[in-house]
């Protein structure tokens, strides 16, 4: 017995079992429908599309109403295939909206990470300027301290006069100020190290956010269609049309 000898009831049952067991999807069913006239007729059986409806949209299935509980005739219901198409189109819209929200959220995370990197760069620059100023002042005070010590040692008058001038121009207590500057340099170095560590982590975070944004924007069908259309010669595209 060949496959063409099987009765319609058996073929319908096979398709129904395939839909109920997730072995047959709506795309497979649409492909089967164009295989032959017989399969095209069998593929529109209401029971078959009802199985797909209850499987793919379980939370959106309409509850069955009993016609015996009311005197009015039941309203004309849509064919399960039409109902499936309506629900599928709504599902596509919801998925597209969710994808757009995911893209917007990923873009917001990328922008926030870039702003954070700019803030950290500015903080590192400010701490660097502060450390440079403290180091310069520390160098000047070290020269004053050496000059103050050298005043107690015999030296030529010209050198002694320069050292005395340095000591007289200094208006702050040298020893206490040197201690403060050394502490300030230490704090600046620690702060710069902290900022650089945070910058490195934020850089990795930005890379992750940019990869997530690429994944959110990626659409297999659109991207493959676009790339194929752009790269193909004009004459070849005309033939394909």
From TrEMBL:
Ranges of Low complexity compositional bias? Answer: 59-71
Keyword annotations for this protein, in alphabetical order, are: Coiled coil
Coiled-coil spans are 117-144
Per the record, its GO cellular-component terms are: nucleus; plasma membrane
Q: Where is this region: Disordered?
A: 59-82, 217-241
> Which InterPro entries does this one have?
F-box-like_dom_sf
What protein name applies here? Answer: F-box domain containing protein
- UniProt lineage: Eukaryota, Viridiplantae, Streptophyta, Embryophyta, Tracheophyta
Instruction: Please name the gene that encodes this protein.
Output: LOC100281037
């Amino acid at each position: 017995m060949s496959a063409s000898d099987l009765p319609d009831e058996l073929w319908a049952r096979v398709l129904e079992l395939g839909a109920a067991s997730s072995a047959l999807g709506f795309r497979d069913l649409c492909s089967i429908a164009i295989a032959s006239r017989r399969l095209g007729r069998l593929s529109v059986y209401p029971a078959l599309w009802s199985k797909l409806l209850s499987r793919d949209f379980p939370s959106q299935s309409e509850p069955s109403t009993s016609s015996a509980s009311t005197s009015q005739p039941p309203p004309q219901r849509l064919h399960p295939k039409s109902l499936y198409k309506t629900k599928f189109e709504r599902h596509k819209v919801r998925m597209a909206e969710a994808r757009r929200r995911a893209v917007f959220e990923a873009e917001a995370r990328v922008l926030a990470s870039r702003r954070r990197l700019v803030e950290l760069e500015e903080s590192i620059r400010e701490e660097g300027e502060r450390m440079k100023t403290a180091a310069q002042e520390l160098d000047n005070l070290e020269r004053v301290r050496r000059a103050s010590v050298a005043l107690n040692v015999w030296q030529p008058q010209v050198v002694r006069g320069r050292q005395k001038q340095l000591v007289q121009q200094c208006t702050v207590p040298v020893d206490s100020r040197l201690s403060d500057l050394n502490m300030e340099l230490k704090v600046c170095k620690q702060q710069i190290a902290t900022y650089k560590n945070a910058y490195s982590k934020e850089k990795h975070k930005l890379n992750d956010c940019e990869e997530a944004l690429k994944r959110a924007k990626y659409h297999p069908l659109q991207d493959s269609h676009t790339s194929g259309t752009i790269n193909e010669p004009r004459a070849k595209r005309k033939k394909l049309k």
